Amino acid sequence: MQQYLVVRIAQLVPAILLASVAIWALIYLLPGDPAIAILGPNATPEQYAAVRQQLGLDQPIPVQYVAWLGRVLHGDFGISYQTGLPVLELIGSRAIATVQLGVMAFLVSMVVGVGLGVVAAARPTSFAARLIGTYNSLTLAMPSFWLGLLLILLFGVWLKVLPPASGFVPIWLDPVATLRSSALPIVTLASYTSGIIARFVRSAMLDVLGADYVRTARAKGVEERRVVWRHALRNALLPTVTVLGLQFGAFIGGAVVTEGVFNYPGLGTLVLSSVVSRDYTVLQGVILMIVAAFTLVNLAVDLLYAFLDPRIQYA
Q1: Taking the CB of residue 61, how many other CB atoms lie within 10 A of it?
Q2: Taking a C-beta distance cutoff of 8 angstroms, is the pair 286, 267 a contact?
Q3: Is residue 59 pLDDT above 90, yes or no?
Q4: pLDDT above 90 (res 131)
């Protein structure tokens, strides 16, 4: 197990390195000039040249990349072009809000998705199973930004029971205010993923419920609820764990759109504002941190396999 962990961590290093190259290249494909974004359109060419020289933008792109990577390896992600604050400080102040939103949305999607998937598999011909199938189709077909706008219109404008714009309230300070301010973006983020989880759980449960050991448990008179939720579900969760890990990327991508719709002060709105203002250092830092987090989640998913299935041995 320890040897496997060391090998996997070693494999993460070239993956993140290649990701940093891709991030750097893609950022430079974006239209616009940071010097113009900083000084405005009325500055002189000499002023633009001075700002580019100050920021190091007059150097060849490979030289800029190596200098940036060297600073990142020392924990220095640079300075924001717009605010003058350290990029790592900006990311830290926004990451707390995004992590809180993502964890709550993930828990909601997991509870809803697993519950609906189990019910649909346990009673595949029932009316409830057909309703669950309809729910899955709707959540997968509806774009997150459109669902967010509908929720704002319904609960924020017509019913006026929830705020249309979401602010960040730490859950450890006021759980009620946190749920009230984040309810709409949580539902928006969780809906798509819950539909995917429900479909995979249903498919995996149908396979497991037809296994020999399940028929044996039923023949011994084990209660049906215990057969489904204790014996079958644990084995059905093994392929679902992979889907949960991959959906972490969907949460991050969906957070950019969802936070923009609800004006939620997280990493998503930071990315959007950085794109608009051509704040390349912030954009590079945020994307690199997201890629690193995604690779670590995939590693955690691999290690979770051994907990769910003791037959899996790492060597």
Answers
A1: 11
A2: yes
A3: no
A4: yes
Q: Which residues pair with 79 in a beta bridge?
A: 86
Reading the block at residue 76, the tokens are 């220095």
Six token digits for residue 239: 């392929």
Q: What is the mean pLDDT of the chain?
A: 83
* The one-letter amino acid at 82: Q
Residue with tokens 């000084």: 39
How far is residue 101's CA from residue 266's CA, in Å, rounded to a whole number? 9
Does the structure show a pLDDT above 90 at 81?
A: no
Tokens 């995604």 sit at which residue? 294
Of 21-30, 145-154, 272-281, the poorest mean pLDDT is in: 21-30
Angle between helices 280-308 and 2-29 (to 10 degrees): 150
